[in-house]
Amino acid sequence: MEERYSSVKMASVFGMVGNLFLLVIKAAIGILTNSQAMIADSVNSAGDIFSSCMTFVGNKIASRPRDDCHNLGHGKAEYIFSMLISISMIFIAIKLLINSVVSFLHNEDYQFSWFLVVVCLITIIVKFLLYRYTHKLSEKYNNLLIEANAKDHRNDCFVTAFTLIASLLSLKNIVWFDSIVGVGISIWICITGIKIFMESYDVLMDRAIHEEDKKKVLEIIKNHSEIQKIQHFNSTPVGYKYQISFTIYVDGNLSTFESHEIANQLEKEIDAKIDEVCLTVIHVNPI
């Protein structure tokens, strides 16, 4: 657990440093050349810095152990801060979309510079390295905050590639494509923000455990022939894992100790075999 939070912390720090560097060079070149695509890209980097900050803070809160006031721990902080990231992305996207459409309608021109090309190439390289790093962490630790950052880094690679194309097309006086790319970037950011928002919303609204994981639990229960029936299967997300509870029915002639020992062994087996489950609570009824 400690390794998980430490790795996420490092990923957020790398994200802040990398995006701050990209923000400075993108904003400078975008303003000098009046490139709407590059300006949109620079604002996107500013949003990425905010995302990395939210990842850092959210991860710090989520790493706190459970206490008397938070019996299930602080794991949902990951999803609260993921939702804040998604909302900021959507607002940024709307603002960029308006600016790009206005630029297109007024046919605003911009000055080509080879610095635009250089900045695009640097951005693609930095973002690809950040994507590879965060993607591996998100797969290893199943962390929505890092997954959101990884998707953002990946999207930025494609977004900046289109910015590069727009810059090169301006050499042929095809300047309208720059505004089109600005619109495309805005829509891309908005869609990504909505997806992250929905994922966070599902967990915060206590979405049930995934059906495939529920089937794994039921398969384990079926292997216990002494259990004659189960009812009241419930699950609650606790951070990136789930707490599950259900009622089992066993032979009423068994002693209290024997019937509860069946439940105790089953709880241990489920917790050990299914990574997505952090706690199993079983109620026993006679039949």
Description of the molecule:
This protein has 2 domains: 2-204, Cation efflux protein transmembrane domain (Alpha-lytic protease prodomain-like, Up-down Bundle); 211-286, Cation efflux protein, cytoplasmic domain (Alpha-Beta Plaits). The model has no long low-confidence stretch (mean pLDDT 82). The protein is 70% helix and 10% strand. Helix 1 runs antiparallel to helix 2, helix 2 packs antiparallel against helix 3 and helix 5 packs antiparallel against helix 6 (176-204). The radius of gyration is 25 Å and the shape is elongated. With 287 residues, the protein is mostly helical. The protein contains 8 helices and 3 strands, in the order H-H-H-H-H-H-H-E-E-H-E.
Quick take:
This protein is mostly helical and 287 residues long. Helices cover 70% and strands 10% of the residues.
Label this structure with key terms.
287 residues, mainly alpha, Alpha-lytic protease prodomain-like, 2 domains, 3 strands, 70% helix
Topology diagram in text:
Blueprint: H1 2-33, H2 36-62, H3 77-105, H4 114-141, H5 144-169, H6 176-204, H7 211-222, E1 229-238, E2 241-250, H8 256-273, E3 277-286
Parallel strand pairs: 2-3
Antiparallel strand pairs: 1-2
Helix pairs in contact: 1-2, 1-4, 2-3, 2-5, 2-6, 3-6, 4-5, 5-6
